[in-house]
Amino acid sequence: MTVGIVGLGLIGGSFARAIKENTDNKVLGFDISSKAFYAAMLCDAVDGELNENNISECDIVLVSLYPEKAVEYVKNNAARFKKGAYVIDCCGVKRYVCQRLLPVAEKNGFVFLGGHPMAGTQSWGFEYSRSSMFKNASMILTCFEKLNIKELDSLKKFFLSLGFSRLQFSSPNEHDRIIALTSQLAHIVSNAYVKSPTARKRMGFSAGSYRDMTRVADLNNEMWTELFLENSDYLAEEIDTLAENLKKYSEALKNNDRDALNSLLLEGKQSKREDR
Questions:
Q1: Could you give phi then psi for residue 53, rounded to 5 degrees?
Q2: 234-237: long-range contacts (C-beta < 8 A, 24 or more apart)?
Q3: What distance in Å separates the CA atoms of residue 67 and residue 73, rounded to the nearest whole number?
Q4: What angle do CA 120, 125, 130 make, to 5 degrees?
Q5: Do 58 and 81 contact (CB within 8 A), yes or no?
Q6: Distance CA 18, CA 43 (A)
Q7: 244-269 pLDDT, tens digit each
Q8: How far apart are CA 250 and CA 103, in angstroms?
């Protein structure tokens, strides 16, 4: 099988490395940065360059670009994809991408699936990619309704061979609603948290909890700005809910209300335990 990878950054590069290390599949890669492409070639993460002449050879094409660029790439190459090929984006939002690409796939005879590998780091770029990136992670697939059991099983085996522990199926809407809490809000909170003036005086006063809370504050602002805006309704709703909850803690402290504060902390502890 031939796999094409568009975008050889953290996720695309990790896909390339994982495929080459764990399967016998041929990998063709493309990145707008020649530095990233040649780095992938030098470490044998790709077998050659993906281009408009050989894209029709690919049985699977993984599009690891920002959402707007992913949509643009698929539309521009829609007529070149092999009939029946799986074209899977790896974006962090699904409604924006799926709404625009499902009609394109139907018109041009390839299968489009919305994908989201639940893995990553606060760093980005091919130099941070690794073949073990997806170990024990979930791979979310949306827009899968037209696939039969045999096709789904084939995709499951492919992704599990790369280290994923499970294939999670979802609708684009459900994905975006949940990801607003589990991923996007965490990045917003971390980014806002480090803006406290007290953070400049923390040396010698911080331990694991500060490190954990601030890990994703150092983010790719261009990418996350796009992702946040393309999921603005659900993300704003989660921010408002968090703000309302934080206000309750603030009021309990200002009122020196021991019972209220203890109750709030107990509720949070119980919620965390139920979430395990």
A1: -85, -30
A2: 234/176, 234/177, 234/180, 235/180, 235/184, 235/185, 235/188, 237/180
A3: 10
A4: 55
A5: yes
A6: 12
A7: 999 999 999 999 999 999 999 999 99
A8: 49
